[in-house]
């Protein structure tokens, strides 16, 4: 049985590296939204993010201080500057009082299973191949009692994904570009027909991105390059390294680093950071033993309780994920 939020319930959380921690106390509203908007994908690198509403007065950072990114004309996001984890979203300077709410990334909480979602929002932007199976009500935009369409945010910086991308042709098949929400870091990847795209449910990916689900695309290292700016690096375990944008926190890549000769050949790119996430077909769910109990899918994808067979399994990753 899923235990949903109750009045005065205390939730704690923080990022993967532990540099930033917070404490939040549940108020009267218990709205928890799966957000499918492209801005949340580009801010986190995740396939979608889930946000839990708390009264701003009931929230405090208890360890360290996050970096702040003004992602639109009316909102700012807080993330860890050391590992990139998205932590909070909040309206700022809004006369309607929306700033009295703060939205906490459920993936960054210590007990995400205890925070049951109530709605889907921005369903017009939901990836068509993401076949979620639940009975939650959905809204094509923001929930109308929170913000009307006329009051929706405008980006403070033009994201590169807003530029219309040409349709793929036979000659250009497999060429993909991507980057973060702020546009500071961009990359290009050539992805072949044999690409593997997997939904990862592990607790470390949640704590690294703040997202609920992170989907990874397998890419040959020789076919990947950063074309603008350089990402920050975070060694997330003794065998792996992740990259993210130091300005807005978007997660870009994951790569094993134990055996340089072998591990240098392949890396994994976050689906949410690509410009055309609709192009990719999902193949697998991995670390399903760590899948959140309220997250269900209506698909026929292969399911693996841990890592892919044949790939290195990080014991530390599995242990962290199951504490969530």
Q: Please tell me the overall pLDDT.
A: 85
- Separation of termini? 16 Å
Strand content: 25-35%
Number of strands: 21
Shape assignment = globular
Contiguous low-pLDDT stretches (5 residues minimum) are 158-172, 314-324
Strand order of the largest sheet: 16-17-18-19-14-13-20-21
Number of domains: 2
Can you put this structure into words, describing what you see?
The protein has 4 helices and 21 strands. The chain is mainly β and 324 residues long. The strands form 4 sheets. It has an 8-stranded mixed beta sheet with strand order 16-17-18-19-14-13-20-21, with helices on one face. Strands 6-7-8-9-4-3-10 form a 7-stranded mixed beta sheet.
Topology, element by element:
Blueprint: E1 10-14, E2 21-25, E3 32-35, H1 38-44, E4 49-55, E5 59-63, E6 67-69, E7 75-79, E8 86-91, E9 101-105, E10 119-121, E11 175-179, E12 186-190, E13 197-200, H2 203-209, E14 214-220, E15 224-228, E16 232-237, E17 240-244, E18 251-256, H3 260-263, E19 266-270, E20 284-286, E21 302-303, H4 315-323
Parallel strand pairs: 3-10, 13-20, 20-21
Antiparallel strand pairs: 1-2, 2-5, 3-4, 4-9, 6-7, 7-8, 8-9, 11-12, 12-15, 13-14, 14-19, 16-17, 17-18, 18-19
